[in-house]
Design brief:
alpha+beta; 215 residues; 23% helix; elongated
């Protein structure tokens, strides 16, 4: 008689439940890191773009001011500037100083409707916000002082000089006071900080000499 054949079960080499769970956990961890990194990178790009857009808008006001751009019907003598308001954290205004009082007369809305001095309203993209400071109060020199508790900041330019005239609600050098802007202005510099909810920041610096930089 023949002996019965014995079959041995071969190992198929599959994954165990524990190994499968480990692979899934590692995959989820990698995906999470990629998403967070992409979100931070995107936020950094948006903040950087917003800061450079703000700097270019100020440069546009400078170009309008020193080139005597026409505003309204045949008017060429106006100064042009950018107006930042503490109550508006995501937009600012390019304006023409029509009445010559050295500041912007109007509100900051979504459009220029209802303002005789507004040229264009700029709005930041995404969740970025603005904060402004007047820097280097001249009366306190050589001590550097930042005035950030201001309700508005105006940066103006008028031919023939490219110099900036920087004023806030704390300035006392408005026309009629006998003070010549910008040489005797309250500030030698202003900063506009662009920040996101993720804590990323870029700073636009404006000097009375007309220099504009992003840091």
């Amino acid at each position: 008689m023949f002996a019965p054949l014995k079959y041995q079960r071969k190992n198929t080499g599959g994954f165990s439940i524990i190994e499968l769970l480990i692979v899934i956990a590692i995959t989820i961890l990698i995906i999470t890191i990629v998403i967070i990194s992409h979100s931070r990178f995107r936020g950094s790009v948006l903040v950087t773009n917003a800061a450079y857009d703000t700097a270019l808008s100020i440069r546009q006001a400078q170009s309008y001011g020193i080139s005597s751009r026409q505003f309204g019907t045949g008017q060429f003598e106006y100064a042009y500037g950018i107006h930042f308001n503490a109550s508006s954290k995501s937009s600012f205004v390019l304006f023409a100083d029509v009445n010559g009082n050295g500041k912007y007369d109007g509100s900051v809305g979504s459009s220029c409707s209802g303002s005789s001095e507004c040229v264009k309203v700029f709005s930041l993209i995404g969740d970025n916000t603005l904060s402004v400071c007047g820097v280097d109060v001249i009366a306190s020199l050589p001590t550097r002082i930042n005035e950030c508790d201001i309700s508005y900041l105006d940066i103006m330019f008028k031919r023939p000089e490219p110099d900036a005239c920087i004023r806030s609600n704390r300035s006392s050098d408005l026309p009629g006071s006998g003070v010549t802007c910008p040489l005797n202005s309250r500030y030698r510099q202003a900063t506009v900080e662009v920040s996101s909810t993720q804590g990323m920041k870029k700073t636009v610096e404006i000097f009375v000499t007309g220099q504009i930089s992003v840091k």
